[in-house]
Amino acid sequence: MREATGAVGSAPDFSGWSCPLPLRDHPRVVMGHGGGGALSAELVQHVFAPAFGGPVLAGLGDSAAVTLGGARIAFSTDSFVVRPLFFPGGSIGDLAVNGTVNDLAMSGAKAAYLSCGFILEEGVETAVVARVAQALGAAARAAGVEVVTGDTKVVEAGHGDGVYLNTAGIGQIPAGVDIRPQRAVPGDVVIVSGDLGVHGIAVMSVREGLEFDVEIESDCAALGGLVETMLAVTPELHVLRDPTRGGLGAALNEIAAAAGVGVVIQERAIPVPAPVASACALLGLDPLYVANEGKLVAFVPREHADAVLDAMLAHPLGARAAVIGECVADHPGMVVSRTGLGGTRVVDLPVGEQLPRIC
Questions:
Q1: Where in the numbering of this chain does the PurM-like C-terminal domain appear (predicted)?
Q2: Helical packing angle, 126-143 and 92-105, nearest 10°
């Protein structure tokens, strides 16, 4: 099995580690509650989960796996509030389709049908709405899914941001496939499908008028085909997650907490393209926490890791796939990064969000 750069070695003692921040206490919603980090987790844990209840929701995956008429169905919903609406490599319409298709794919499901809700601000140009709709329709056709129902609402001027979208999707999970965060076990190999941080920096560059030597385009893409390729190697994929809000750092923390395992990653093995690394250094951002919209992280049994990686590398959306670490029994629920200088740092769940309104 091809390892990530650097040996894991003996695990440091994190038994005395604790968060230096007190428990957040927010009587009002702040932007960080939508960032996919610790504030988002608290909102779900203390507000939504107690109100809704139920064992399916408690799984907190990218999509819910349910049984309907004898078939295993994946069901997911998502809302999109990106600003600007159009950016290098994509648009809010592309995000709405690909984000929902990818949530279904993270359960191993092949997406079939989508719903779409448009929330429009009074005064937005009809041509802009049409452009978003056309992008959404084209993305759905490219992903092989059909938009079968929808809704439109209009809010007063000043109470929106042009166009917000909500999409929900359903797809069927193949027999023998059981992919969920709780299945990660010590010994699993952690693989990412390609370069990280691209989408977040692409959106930020347009929003803030930043110019780089090379234009950075969003990695927005539907990952269903890549997941099918991986499942063709083995149905025994343990976990799949698309690291959107909160980036790879948040995704790994969520998986570690759900499965009660530790995760060790090798910093030098993580594929971050030079323009993204430079932009993050300029903006004071950590690429591990920057959102992606066309990448996935996989936890794969060690005996299948080489074959799965080879299949990913042969697919256009996995051409830059890399092994970045492994699951361990030590420090359960915690993610640790081995730095290029030989040190170790804890990759904590982000409190808020580095880049708001990017998905």
A1: 186-331
A2: 30
